[in-house]
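Quarterly update, task 2.4: zinc ion-bound model.
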Amino acid sequence: MTSYDTRTALVVVDVQNDFADPNGALSVQGGDEVVPVANREIEQAAAAGALVVYTQDWHPPQTPHFAKYGGKWPVHCVRDTWGAQLHPDLKVVGPRILNGTGEEDGYSGFTVIHPVTGETSPTGLEELLRERGVGRVVVLGLATDYCVKETALDAVRLGFDTLVLREGVRAVDVEPGDGDRALEEMAAPG
Ligand code: VGL
Ligand code: ZN
């Protein structure tokens, strides 16, 4: 069982229809299985007075993140559409951080990267955690090999004591084994 306290934040990464629903545009195998795990953790966190934060991939209709505009992915999580909404069964008890709202790319909940200039800018997540005196983060959600990985690695870089809940993540696995490799990469720095 995970322990929570007022210095801990639970970061629920991109549990959105396009990733979590089997009919989503970038559906992750077993993505909907993270919802009950997330809800159990959200209840425990909230009961302990821990902050619960939700990230959402939130793209404009045209972005270099999508294959048809030069990127890697099918169109997904277009702002204000069904695919971008949090899964309807997910309990929402805290603030949201929107990610990739402009031209930017990047998978971390903490920062976005401009695909042309390479410039990074903060999403507001770090500021929110610092304001609340958070020193430890628990991460779960989608997808293991992209947003969960980059969010967790950034959390470690920023000095947060970081725990990724294996039971609460699932991978895109563009190449078989990507999710497992991502878990190993996250284990390396702690
Ligand atoms: C994600 C691929 C593209 C993620 C976001 O949330 O892991 N993956 N955009
Ligand atoms: Zn995306």
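Highlight for this quarter: Helices lie at 17-20, 34-47, 125-131, 144-157, 178-187.
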